[in-house]
Amino acid sequence: MSAIVFLIQCKDQKGLLAGISSFFAERGFNILHCQQYTDVEQGQYFMRLKLEDHGDMPRATLEQEFAAFASQLKLVWSVRYTNVPYRVALLVTKASHCPYDLLLRELEGELKCDIPLIIGNHADLESMAKQFNKPFYHLPITPETKQAQEQQIKNLLAEYQIDLVVMARYMQILSEQFVEEFRGRVINIHHGFLPAFQGAKPYHQAYERGVKLIGATAHYATAELDEGPIIEQDVERVMHDNSPEDLVMIGKDIERLVLARAVKAHIEHRIIISGRRTIVFSEGA
Amino acid sequence: MSAIVFLIQCKDQKGLLAGISSFFAERGFNILHCQQYTDVEQGQYFMRLKLEDHGDMPRATLEQEFAAFASQLKLVWSVRYTNVPYRVALLVTKASHCPYDLLLRELEGELKCDIPLIIGNHADLESMAKQFNKPFYHLPITPETKQAQEQQIKNLLAEYQIDLVVMARYMQILSEQFVEEFRGRVINIHHGFLPAFQGAKPYHQAYERGVKLIGATAHYATAELDEGPIIEQDVERVMHDNSPEDLVMIGKDIERLVLARAVKAHIEHRIIISGRRTIVFSEGA
Amino acid sequence: MSAIVFLIQCKDQKGLLAGISSFFAERGFNILHCQQYTDVEQGQYFMRLKLEDHGDMPRATLEQEFAAFASQLKLVWSVRYTNVPYRVALLVTKASHCPYDLLLRELEGELKCDIPLIIGNHADLESMAKQFNKPFYHLPITPETKQAQEQQIKNLLAEYQIDLVVMARYMQILSEQFVEEFRGRVINIHHGFLPAFQGAKPYHQAYERGVKLIGATAHYATAELDEGPIIEQDVERVMHDNSPEDLVMIGKDIERLVLARAVKAHIEHRIIISGRRTIVFSEGA
Amino acid sequence: MSAIVFLIQCKDQKGLLAGISSFFAERGFNILHCQQYTDVEQGQYFMRLKLEDHGDMPRATLEQEFAAFASQLKLVWSVRYTNVPYRVALLVTKASHCPYDLLLRELEGELKCDIPLIIGNHADLESMAKQFNKPFYHLPITPETKQAQEQQIKNLLAEYQIDLVVMARYMQILSEQFVEEFRGRVINIHHGFLPAFQGAKPYHQAYERGVKLIGATAHYATAELDEGPIIEQDVERVMHDNSPEDLVMIGKDIERLVLARAVKAHIEHRIIISGRRTIVFSEGA
């Protein structure tokens, strides 16, 4: 059975739930799941609606009618159909742990998406791509070619009709123009510590500072480096007798898990971005 | 600002969300938060609605009108008003860690309830009650007096108009008749291990078995001992070098936390019991 | 730099630490790490010693001299050299999440071992083996061929000089004779719940019971099914709105992680089995 | 049975374990537990030794003989006797959750120390002190009286023979002179976020930034604010629908737990400070 998922946000106002749910009830849609959230601080309303697709109404008609309805209430909205999987591109450099994990989860059916291509600024992970029968594009980058390389990436994203770009330990900073064009459609992962460490060799710094937790954060890429809306975070406990190399290894496991959860939330159409925050509706829905 | 919280369950059917939300919209109530869940396996629908109390409609009227509406749709429902705090009785024996924790959280405002009395089958915790200026009733129990003692408890619960009974490490089994009469209104806490251990000294058994996790489960009391609907569970990691005494101590921290979370969910009117399961709506609401 | 790792256990007695550490100091070995643990309940002493291999003493000589020393103190001991990696065989059926994870970790260098072969009682995972360039042996099993099939497995383990067998979701019960012969050298993984569930479809049962945590346990295989010494356990929190399918998926992630940690502890020679318990020395060492 | 606990650190060198353990073996001491750790990066060696106190040697003699032995090997060391509990002073302001928790744990026997006095720069927690029959000293502070107030605190610490000062949400910055004088003997607790937030209302900032984890860090106080050696850290998961007030409440639970664990590690003489790091030996010992 296919389902239809709406994500909606607007200024909070009376009667929203009744109004929106009536819209779908009148058209014979069974609501499988409805989650809503009101940000009282900001006066904003958020909703995720999952409908059973009865198939009696063409999708274009549904979208047209909802657009008309939404414009009255000033709803910002988007819709996805669960039988149309997200198309996801992986950007990689040399580290394989994150892209491997995502490829495995696609294969295992844990991530219900298509990953039709992998793009690397180094060629190291070409064999990994081959293992999974994925086309691999090696697009090296130098200060001089950065702009041209990004254009090549954009061309590939267009050619492969990509919905979501995952920076799976892609050790390059995308240009402001790129992240603006793909706002809310580029996910990045980076390590995270308490306290935070600037500069090189952060795991070494964390060791020298004797931190007891190391973590990772997945967020949408924005022009401010590592400052985009947070999607998911997690930490793992470490001990004084863990070497800096242990910390790196433990960090890899957290990065894998946090990135996979963030991608899963996105491709299940469970995330609404609101300013610097994300609303991530629970996965049960 | 006071709020009104409805908990609703019924057979799943089309139009529920639109119908229920319209009922309140028509009466001018602003919906602050709505959570719903459909148990697809059982075909059951569950909802928690939090309304702003505009004060224009007497509570008796609202309840009467909703009762009429609910009977048409065969809704099972209950309502609470956030300015009427739950009244909670603590049943205790000798262990002080759980009741102390609950009393502190009441004092700190973390549990927005009233704890007007403490009942112990031993007198050991009378001083604790005194520390918090609570009346303490010492109702000892022997095989012969068990029935009479339970009657005394019931009289006290009635006298103090108690909504919820918390067995805060009360080392007695309540009679089947008692738990039936207070079905869904008695919360118990017990340790939990993987694998489970029967019989005495469970922490010692867990040590001998070399478990790596110890845990606790809070559940509603039912006639089947420790088998009632689970409200909350948690575990803590232990090591081979933790002694059985360490395990007991670690276990106390988990019991405290798990019981406090379960009581918090209940007094915030966030739990619906469905057969052997509970639906625990998230605390943010 | 290569290191030498001793695991030692014996009846607790005075002077053990001084005696053992002097043995190595007299032979010019620098002790990189020493962990010890006394099980006061059982009066047993456990030690893990990691020595810098100065290379001035042939390994055979060291082992001979230590054997003589150990027999006086009635030490039970074993030794491994970090430049001789464990050789690990994977037993699989159809589920790929655990074997995939182990193969990836070998590739990534997170598990410093060799996995020279994969044995499946079904042929489903042959392609996975091919992806990683590993020989795959398809040894189907029927009630009639069970004994013969186990003999084939044993032959392969001998041929490939296997140190450790990992049942990576191998859905067969090894014979008592097999697990006795490979006592302490077969690791198994299974799901774990609070409370435990018997019989088929445990995740479904867990859903119906409304558990809030699901987990996994890795243990050494023994003749009593799922009752061998526990190596590692973990849990993940679940919610009422997670479907049975969600629980299965979440369970896969825990199984992966728990099994990988157990294998890592074994191949780093950090585990001593003592009756039904394991002593798992910390990974930092 | 009483035990003797040595904490030792020195430059790493051959024969340390053999030498030190022989010292005690020769004097008839049974080693109950020995933990050691080598910081390979820094070339530093750390040891915690727990001896059974056979009572045949006066403590002064033992300490004298060990001092002579230690000076040869350039060991930095300290010793505690488990039958001489640490004496702990609480510094408080208005927030009661941390001091309450510590007082309860003393009462429950979870923290085996004596808390003979509470010092507050506000009088709000006098009633809490009374509940636990503890003397309470109200020492208000103004920019003008800061120095004099610290002198009063020092006088009280001397009078009550205090070993450890716990800043249990004491909202004052101790002077550089004070923390130097009590280096390694003042524990502080503060919230911690990923990313970190400067300035006022950190929980509000965390909400606005949509963090998914909030945490706390316990550390030794040093002249650099919140930058002392970390003892313990933990986090709790939060959701988009948790209000800033929820975050504060969840933060209180973490602060309580993290501070209690840090104090427990200190009074069990399990912590060695090494530059900006701490070595925290495991609690099982």
UniProtKB/TrEMBL annotation, chains A, B, C, D:
Family matches, as CDD domains: ACT_F4HF-DF, FMT_core_Formyl-FH4-Hydrolase_C
GO molecular function, one term: formyltetrahydrofolate deformylase activity
PROSITE patterns, A to Z: ACT
Pfam families named in the record: ACT, Formyl_trans_N
Keyword rRNA-binding listed: no
Metabolic or biological pathway: Purine metabolism; IMP biosynthesis via de novo pathway; formate from 10-formyl-5,6,7,8-tetrahydrofolate: step 1/1
Top-level taxon of the source organism: Bacteria
Top-rank EC class of the record's enzyme: hydrolase
Keyword Hydrolase part of the UniProt annotation: yes
GO BP of this protein: 'de novo' IMP biosynthetic process; one-carbon metabolic process
Keywords on record: Hydrolase, One-carbon metabolism, Purine biosynthesis
Residue span, ACT domain: 5-87
InterPro entries in alphabetical order: ACT-like_dom_sf, ACT_dom, Formyl-FH4-Hydrolase_C, Formyl_transf_N, Formyl_transf_N_sf, PurU, PurU_ACT
Active-site positions on this chain: 226
EC number assigned by the record: 3.5.1.10
Function text: Catalyzes the hydrolysis of 10-formyltetrahydrofolate (formyl-FH4) to formate and tetrahydrofolate (FH4).
Identification of the protein by name: Formyltetrahydrofolate deformylase
The organism of origin for this protein: Methylophaga lonarensis MPL
Gene: purU
